[in-house]
Amino acid sequence: NAGVTQTPKFQVLKTGQSMTLQCAQDMNHEYMSWYRQDPGMGLRLIHYSVGAGITDQGEVPNGYNVSRSTTEDFPLRLLSAAPSQTSVYFCASRLLEAYEQYFGPGTRLTVT
Amino acid sequence: RKEVEQDPGPFNVPEGATVAFNCTYSNSASQSFFWYRQDCRKEPKLLMSVYSSGNEDGRFTAQLNRASQYISLLIRDSKLSDSATYLCVVNWGSTLGRLYFGRGTQLTVWP
Fold this sequence. Notes:
The complex is a heterodimer.
Chain A: E1 4-7, E2 10-13, E3 19-25, E4 31-38, E5 42-51, E6 54-57, E7 64-66, E8 76-78, E9 87-94, E10 102-103, E11 107-111
Parallel strand pairs in A: 2-11
Antiparallel strand pairs in A: 1-3, 3-8, 4-5, 4-9, 5-6, 7-8, 9-10, 9-11
Chain B: E1 4-6, E2 11-14, E3 19-25, E4 30-38, E5 44-50, E6 55-57, E7 60-65, E8 70-75, E9 84-92, E10 99-101, E11 105-110
């Protein structure tokens, strides 16, 4: 049982490049979400999904896209990377009727 | 105003000390409350839920004061392994609602 997995662990992008951060969970959780964590800012919600085919915006969605074609996978796409998107990105999942979230190990992204 | 505010920290305490963290939340309709722990360069993990009557888990005690919109976490007999950042987390509404995270309070326990 792997829990929540994220790839890659580290990534360096140049301004303007695009990429996809991968997230997968094997716990059959309906609810999945993406956060970014910046020093002094805490965790901020980017996008979330309550099931396959359903996504919604969080607190800081600009510059990011998501899709949820399966229960297991919830990729986060950066459309045109900017230095302001340098951050640590966490994917999380939970059961819809529960509050405990399980986080992936994070992706450390640097945009130069 | 941020939805969830925590003590700025950092807290540096010797082993065996008792330390308390505070957290206030802005939405009186908040329903559920949690403390998460985050080790350096790791993901957050649930430490404990906070119930209205207060609850204890070993050396950890969580309290909720709805009237003052205030949550606390008390750690007794601190261990070196307690060194981490503690995140206060609040949800308002149903389980479909999002979780709001405080910025965290850093604790360092020294020998």
